[in-house]
Amino acid sequence: MDATTDKDPLVQEQIYNALCYLGESEPEEILNSCDEYLRQHDKLAYPHRVIILKAMETVVKNSIALLDKSTAKEVVQDWQQAASNVLVAVGQRFINKVMEEVLTKFQPGILPHYFVMQTFANLSVSNGE
């Protein structure tokens, strides 16, 4: 996964594809490995973090029926937290674009998802003056 930091988009795409391919046969192993890698590399640049998060999303979507319930819950929560953190970090420079995206998740008459609210709150805190 260290190769995700390679600046060549083709290398990054190959890493994403490899993670997804491995996730087809060993989804829990790949999800746990990605989760552990992201935890150990909390300073990983966000574009590179996004590659791993997208691979995790694809693995979850493609193997949701195969995942153990506890693994699915833990991974989805960790993935959502990591994605929220990415949005907050990007929002420190591009607050208008991130806010525009987050606000699309607010629908009249529907209670927003917990992580949407958390992201919204963390954006306001990180950009407060």
UniProtKB/TrEMBL annotation:
Residues 19-127 form the MROH2B-like N-terminal HEAT-repeats domain. InterPro entries: Maestro_heat-like_prot (IPR045206), MROH2B-like_N_HEAT (IPR056282). One of its GO terms (cellular component) is cytoplasm. It holds the Pfam family HEAT_MROH2B_1st. This is MROH1 protein. It comes from Chunga burmeisteri (Black-legged seriema). The lineage of its organism: Eukaryota, Metazoa, Chordata, Craniata, Vertebrata. The gene is Mroh1.
